Automatic annotation (TrEMBL):
Naturally occurring in which organism (per UniProt): Dictyobacter arantiisoli
Keyword entries, A-Z: Membrane, Transmembrane, Transmembrane helix
Spans through the membrane: 6-27
Protein name: DUF4760 domain-containing protein
């Protein structure tokens, strides 16, 4: 075997190793992306958990959270501010989730689950009543996302109300 033959074999072997290296880098990137998504999902749960625990522990906070939508105008200035802070905090969490999803840092299934929570939150807390005040605190694309949900819920409520049978 001549030196030229050995050089040709070495070039072929290099090409094979290069292709294997590219595959390994691709595999590592894919695994790293999956681990990042899992870590992001875990972090979202870690962020939301203290809030939910606080609601479970504090009767006054739970009362504020539950009665805020119905009795907002009856609250004193301090309770209104506390209630607005709770709304803003929960919306900020959802804004974070929304932006992570847009950057593909959260799995689609996870995002859909959080979106259901956001939709329930918007409806339960009657965010439509406060959105003109709150929306200025959020990035435009998220504010538009919330507005779309509010409009859809308003439309669905309107249709449901229109289709209700009359009681005689």
């Amino acid at each position: 075997m001549s030196l030229s033959d050995l050089a040709s074999i070495a070039i072929i072997v290099q090409g094979v190793f290069f292709i294997i290296s590219i595959f390994l880098v691709w595999y590592q990137l894919r695994e790293n992306t999956n681990l990042t998504r899992a870590a992001n999902t875990q972090k979202l749960v870690e962020i939301a958990t203290p809030f939910n625990f606080q609601l479970a522990q504090s009767r006054d906070l739970t009362k504020l959270w539950q009665q805020g939508p119905q009795h907002f105008n009856d609250m004193d200035e301090i309770d209104r501010e506390r209630y607005f802070s709770l709304l803003t905090w929960w919306l900020m969490l959802h804004e974070n989730i929304y932006h992570q999803w847009r950057k593909k840092l959260v799995e689609q299934d996870t995002y859909l689950s959080w979106t259901q929570d956001l939709e329930y939150f918007i409806q339960r807390q009657r965010i439509h009543q406060h959105w003109t005040t709150l929306q200025v605190f959020f990035e435009d694309s998220f504010a538009e996302h919330v507005m779309i949900i509010i409009e859809r819920q308003t439309k669905e409520t309107s249709i449901a109300t229109t289709n209700m049978p009359e009681c005689v």
